[in-house]
Every structure is written in C-alpha cells, then in structure tokens.
C-alpha cells in the first residue's frame, strides 16, 4: 500500500490517524471515542502518573485535554485543508471541580469555522456520571 492510500480524505479521518501517533496524546493515554461533524469525544483514563496529590488529576493534564479537544473539534467532519497542519492560537480554561481517581471524557464542539480560524468549546466531564470538571475553549488555526 502506498502513502497516497493512507492519506486522509476528511478531517475526521485525519484525527483518527493522528491521535494514536501523537507521542503526547499517547503519554496522556487519550483515546478517540467518537467523532462526527463539528464534534469529538475523547477519553483520558485515570492513571497515577497524572495526579497532583492523592488521587486528584493534575490541572496541567486537564488543560492539555482542553487543547486536544480543541484540535479534535476543529478537524471533526468533512473539511480537510490542503495542508495537514494547524496550531491552537488561544485557549482558556475554567476549573469547576476536581476529578479524583476518575477517568474523564473530553467533549469538543466546533462553534464557528472560518477560512483559517476555528472557534471551539470543550467540556471535560467525569466518565460515567458526566460531572463537569472543567470547561474551556479556544481558537485553532488550520493550514
């Protein structure tokens, strides 16, 4: 199979291929759960390496989840830019409550997509009862 057969045809396909190959995403243990037009759901399983104290998930790990959620939501769907690259240009996060010994789901939603800039919202909820842990958003530049 040649490289051209492995080239993604949609943004969702690009995310499906990219996430398992990203060393940082793999370091956090993040997996893609589902992806559809303008929306992506990912999961970061609880691991002792991600705690700050006791069983509390570190805020830095949660902030990284916001960033990865922005990326996934920006790429989610049919849209595929000519160049397969991009960068988060701004990001904010509000910590609502802690995740203690719990896996979290990252729910990214694309709010607006311009020619190059995409605005996204991300909610981080506990897996299972979907208790809101953090919320944030940002702007992503494609291409």
TrEMBL record:
Signal peptide: none annotated. Residues 52-133 form the Acyl-CoA thioesterase-like N-terminal HotDog domain. It comes from the Bacteria. It comes from Nocardia lasii. Keywords: Hydrolase. It is an enzyme of class 3 (hydrolase). GO terms for molecular function: hydrolase activity. Its EC number is 3.1.2.-. The keyword Hydrolase applies. NCBIfam families: unchar_dom_1. Pfam families: 4HBT_3 (PF13622). The keyword Transcription regulation does not apply. InterPro entries: ACOT13, HotDog_dom_sf, PAAI_dom, TesB_ACOT8-like_N. This is PaaI family thioesterase.
């Amino acid at each position: 199979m040649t490289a051209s057969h492995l080239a993604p045809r949609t943004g969702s396909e690009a995310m499906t291929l990219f996430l398992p190959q990203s060393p940082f995403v793999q370091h956090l243990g993040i997996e893609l759960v589902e992806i559809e037009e303008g929306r992506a759901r990912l999961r970061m399983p609880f691991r002792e390496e991600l705690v700050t104290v006791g069983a509390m998930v570190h805020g830095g790990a949660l902030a990284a989840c916001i960033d990865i959620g922005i990326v996934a939501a920006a790429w989610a769907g049919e849209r595929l830019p000519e160049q397969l690259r991009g960068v988060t240009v701004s990001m904010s996060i509000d910590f609502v409550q802690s995740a203690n010994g719990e896996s979290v789901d990252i729910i990214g939603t694309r709010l607006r997509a311009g020619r190059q800039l995409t605005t996204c919202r991300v909610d981080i909820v506990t897996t299972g009862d979907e208790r809101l842990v953090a919320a944030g958003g940002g702007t992503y530049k494609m291409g």
